[in-house]
Amino acid sequence: MKVFTDEGDYFGTIDEAVLTHTKVFGWKVKADKNSFLSNVLGSAKGVVVPHDLVQSMGDIMIISKAAVPDDNME
Fold it and tell me: Could you give the 3-state DSSP secondary structure of residue 41?
């Protein structure tokens, strides 16, 4: 499933769900080539987006822009 931010940026694709005992904790999102996520992360392969930041799911997933890693991570 493709993932977009609430501002319309292509973020990446769902790699897998991260589950706890009774619910979905988050989603592993893979940084595809030329995605917004790959531009922010550089060589990292992806991130885990907490399920709380998912705004909508259907044919695509829409996540809050708050899920975007800070490009000043050091």
Answer: helix
Instruction: Read off the amino acid at residue 31.
Output: A
Give the tokens for residue 22: 């009774």
pLDDT in tens, 15-47: 999 999 889 999 999 988 888 888 777 777 888
Pair type for strands 24-30 and 46-50: antiparallel
Q: Is residue 58 part of a domain?
A: yes
Counting the structural domains of the chain, the total is 1
Token pair recorded at residue 32: 């595809």
Q: Compute the distance between CA of residue 72 and CA of residue 74 in angstroms, rounded to an integer.
A: 6
Q: What is the CATH number of the domain that holds 31?
A: 2.30.30.240
State the residue range of the domain holding 26: 2-67
Q: What is the mean pLDDT of the chain?
A: 86
User: Per the structure block, which two tokens stand in for 24?
Assistant: 């979905």
CB 49 within 8 A of CB 30: no
